[in-house]
Amino acid sequence: AEVVERGERRLEVALDLAASFGAQHLCGILYSGFGKYSAPPTAAGRANSVMAMQRLGRKAAERGVQVNLEVVNRYETNLLNTAEQAVEFCDDVNDPNVKIHLDTYHMNIEERSFSEAVRV
């Protein structure tokens, strides 16, 4: 619980800074700590992330900032490595202010096909 709270406080600071600069988007690995994990995400960890993104999405919408979750390779996180995982995650977040950012560098590592990934 403490790790989740610290992470959400950090996201709030990032959102405050983005809004103060007049940014319209907050993008990156906002849903998880950056780093290589030795195991897949747990159900509880994923659920914590979904709830945190729901709260961030609402707060960001109030500030006029869109949240964009960057899908990255397995060496940077264990939660969203493919477009399919990101779509499922965003479906669970269920907030129109939370979007997906596909990065071709990471897609080249994780996706079998760019075009299939985009169609997901």
Largest sheet: 3 strands, parallel
**Which blocks of ≥5 consecutive residues have pLDDT under 50?**
none
- Order of strands across the main sheet: 1-2-3
Taking Cα atoms only, what radius of gyration do you get, to the nearest Å?
Answer: 14 Å
Sum up the overall morphology in one term: globular
- Number of contiguous helices: 5
> What fraction of residues sit in β-strands?
5-15%
Helix fraction, binned, reads 40-55%
What class would the helix/strand composition place it in?
alpha/beta
Number of strands: 3
Order of secondary-structure elements? HEHEHEHH
Mean residue pLDDT: 94
Please render the helix and strand layout as text:
Blueprint: H1 2-20, E1 25-28, H2 43-62, E2 66-71, H3 83-93, E3 98-102, H4 104-110, H5 114-119
Parallel strand pairs: 1-2, 2-3
Helix pairs in contact: 1-2, 2-3
Q: What tags apply to this protein structure?
A:
3-stranded parallel β-sheet, 3 strands, 120 residues
Task: Explain what you see.
- By secondary structure, this protein is an alpha/beta fold.
- 52% of the residues lie in helices and 12% in strands.
- It contains five helices and three strands.
- Strands 1-2-3 form a three-stranded parallel β-sheet.
- Helix 1 (2-20) runs parallel beside helix 2 and helix 2 packs across helix 3.
- It starts with a helix and ends with a helix.
- The mean pLDDT is 94.
